[in-house]
Design a protein that fits this description.
Length: 131
Amino acid sequence: RLEAQRLAIEADAAARSATLAAERRAEELRQKAIEAEKAQLQAAKEEEAARQRTVEAKEAKQRAVAAEEARLRSAEAAELAAKVAAQAKSEDELEAHRKVQEMYELQQKALAEADESRRKAEAETEVAQGT
C-alpha cells in the first residue's frame, strides 16, 4: 500500500512536471508568434514606405519633365519673337523691338521659373530615391 502511494505521488509529480514543461513551451511559442507578428507588421510598414517613395519619385520625375517642357516652350517663343523682330520694318521695327523686349523678359522669367521647378523636382527625386 505504501508502495502504491509512493508510486501515485511520483506519478502525480511527473504529471505536474510535464504540465509545467508543456505550459512553458506553450508560452515560448506564444512569444515567438507575437515576435513573428511584429516582424510581419514591420515588413508591411517598410513595404508601404517603399511604395510611397516610388510614388513620390514618379511624381517628382513628372514635375521635372513638365518643367523641361515649359523651358522648351519658352525657348520656342523666344525664337519666334526673334524671327518676328527680324522681319519688322521702319516704325513697326521699334514697336516690334519693344514687344520682343517684353517677350524676352517674359521668356527669361519663364526660364528662371522652369529651371527652379526642375531643380526642385530633381532634388525631390533624389530625396525620394535616396530614402
